[in-house]
Amino acid sequence: MTRPWADSSSAAQGSSSAAQGSSSAAQGSSSAAQGSSSAAQGSSSAAQGSSSAAQGSSSAAQGSSSAAQGSSSAAQGSSSAAQGSDSVAGSGIFDNCDAPRAWGLYFQDSASPQMEALVELHNNIMFYLVIILFGVGWILLSIIRNYVSSNNPISNKYLNHGTFIELVWTITPAIILILIAFPSFKLLYLMDEVTDPSMSIVAEGHQWYWSYQYPDFLDSNDEFIEFDSYIVPESDLEDGSLRMLEVDNRVILPELTHVRFIITAADVIHSFAVPALAIKCDAYPGRLNQVSVLVNREGTFYGQCSEICGILHSSMPIVVESVSIEKFLTWLSMQ
Ligand SMILES: [Cu+2]
């Protein structure tokens, strides 16, 4: 799947397209050399310069704009090497990517209204959770301290029922549960709704890769656009690419467009999941599930199969690339 923007260095795209171009050029040379690392290393010093910069900034802060800015000069230097090269689906840390990172504890940056709502729901519930944690902890510690047997050998001798406190500790949790449940159900049913999508993408899980179909668009042979998406093995990875997350053919989406994913499987149960877009939907053989997505910015979003589906369950990642509508139309016209 050729991506036309991968080898164009427009000024508007700045460092990201240049970096993407250089990494795809580097990937192109390595695939020509059939993964021979020595050939890839010696292919071009400019590509090496940008890839070492990519590696330097990748561990520091993924998605940190300052790191990307810092290495953009190196990427710019190699953009001439990228010019005119017919790239395969390349990638780099510069792709404004949204991926898991080591020791990450919070959510990835949201890229869809659903994910924003989910993060907000999480924060609201966490408000009650922290109060409950400290309230219950305080009660527990004070009981342990006051009713230890050395202080009160027969502590419950005069302890009777306290109707009022029993009412309080029964009704208060019920109210809190209702306060949590209503926004949760509201969001659940909102996310379930698929309203008037502009286009559909069929994602089919296989052991162990994903295949995609764009049933609204025809390619040059008057057939539906469809392709398989395999993981890039570790031996073929470029510096700065994400191990176990990179694929050869990405899902290309237009931004700010209501897209429906139709999700199914060919063999066993898989699960199509992209955290930054709030997608997680099981893929069943013989059944079509659907989820609605509106990606509200350009970017590259990484996900993984989320249903234990066999020995290579970890080797069927998902990469969704959101581009402007103009770029999407250009990509369509090249299929
Ligand atoms: Cu799977």
Summarize the structure.
The strands form three sheets. The chain has a five-stranded mixed beta sheet with strand order 4-3-2-6-9, with no helix packed on it. A four-stranded mixed beta sheet has the order 1-10-11-5, with helices on one face. It has a two-stranded antiparallel ribbon with strand order 7-8. The protein contains seven helices and eleven strands. It has 335 residues and is α/β, with parallel strands linked by helices.
Folded structure, characterized:
The chain is an alpha/beta fold and 335 residues long. The chain has 7 helices and 11 strands. It has helices spanning 15-32, 37-43, 45-60, 65-82, 113-146, 163-192, 325-333, and strands at 97-98, 199-206, 209-218, 224-229, 251-254, 258-265, 270-274, 279-283, 289-294, 299-304, 317-323. The strands form 3 sheets. A 5-stranded mixed β-sheet has the order 4-3-2-6-9, with no helix packed on it. Strands 1-10-11-5 form a 4-stranded mixed β-sheet, covered by helices on one side. A two-stranded antiparallel sheet has the order 7-8. A hairpin with a 5-residue loop joins β3 (209-218) and β4 (224-229). It is elongated and about 85 Å long. The structure holds copper (II) ion. Copper (II) ion binds next to loops. Residues 205, 270, 305, 307, 309, 313, 316 line the site of copper (II) ion (CU).
